[in-house]
């Protein structure tokens, strides 16, 4: 049986900050470590969501594309889904969703994932247009994004929570992606309102961090020159 206690992550959000956007893992390799996940393509080519072993890309035009195993990414994570039913939620804002997911605590010191299946009275997402070499910084590249909005849409919100201690490796707090059942909207979530949904949670005791050591740009970059925390906060 697959290990459902491990969150596998390739790359770090910090490497995106200075524009290290080269794809260094294939989707086939990522799926070997999980059937659920999120990420972005080379050059920030859209927003990715993996559900039930199928990898989807929401591109900057709002199209939902099923990805082949040779699709490459600079940053992504995956895990084998084993969500435990937590609760049902209705008329919930992002803050209320986070409070429920954290069981009322102000924070968590471990990684976990939350899955919400239901109807959303409001959903606002974004997807970034693919950039080409020479890659610009994360902040600059993220300016070329498209915003999508929908009302009363049914779908899946996939969220990953990272402890503040790991900010830079990932986004401290919640990082949410969405895909509508009818593929009418998806992407990185900017805002939402849950009309009614079932909430499942999966807690990880292990973070498997995989780094692109064969990529010269990554290996030689001096991250001390980058304001990683501010850049991630601005882009996310």
Automatic annotation (TrEMBL):
Top-level EC class as recorded in UniProt: lyase
Name this protein carries in UniProt: Alpha-acetolactate decarboxylase
Organism the protein comes from: Liquorilactobacillus cacaonum DSM 21116
Family membership: Belongs to the alpha-acetolactate decarboxylase family.
Biological pathway: Polyol metabolism; (R,R)-butane-2,3-diol biosynthesis; (R,R)-butane-2,3-diol from pyruvate: step 2/3
Catalytic activity: (2S)-2-acetolactate + H(+) = (R)-acetoin + CO2
Enzyme Commission number, as recorded: 4.1.1.5
UniProt KW Lyase keyword: yes
Keywords: Acetoin biosynthesis, Decarboxylase, Lyase
Taxonomic path: Bacteria, Bacillati, Bacillota, Bacilli, Lactobacillales
């Amino acid at each position: 049986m697959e290990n459902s206690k491990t969150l596998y992550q390739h790359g770090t959000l910090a490497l995106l900050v200075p524009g290290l956007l080269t794809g260094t893992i294939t989707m086939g390799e990522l799926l070997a470590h999980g059937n659920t996940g999120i990420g972005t393509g080379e050059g920030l080519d859209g927003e990715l969501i993996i559900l039930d072993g199928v990898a989807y890309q929401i591109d900057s035009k709002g199209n939902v594309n099923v990805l082949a195993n040779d699709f490459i990414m600079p940053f992504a994570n995956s895990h084998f889904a084993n969500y435990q039913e937590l609760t049902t939620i209705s008329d919930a804002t992002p803050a209320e969703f986070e409070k429920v997911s954290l069981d009322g605590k102000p924070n968590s010191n471990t990684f976990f994932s939350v899955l919400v299946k239901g109807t959303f009275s409001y959903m606002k997402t974004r997807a970034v247009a693919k950039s080409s070499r020479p890659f610009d910084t994360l902040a600059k590249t993220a300016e070329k994004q498209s915003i999508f909005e929908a009302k009363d849409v049914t779908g899946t919100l996939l969220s990953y929570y990272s402890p503040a201690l790991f900010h830079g490796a990932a986004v401290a707090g919640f990082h949410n992606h969405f895909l509508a059942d009818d593929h009418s909207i998806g992407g990185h979530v900017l805002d939402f309102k849950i009309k009614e949904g079932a909430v499942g949670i999966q807690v990880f005791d292990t973070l498997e961090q995989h780094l692109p050591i064969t990529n010269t740009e990554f290996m030689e970059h001096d991250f001390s020159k980058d304001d990683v925390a501010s850049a991630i906060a601005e882009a996310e």
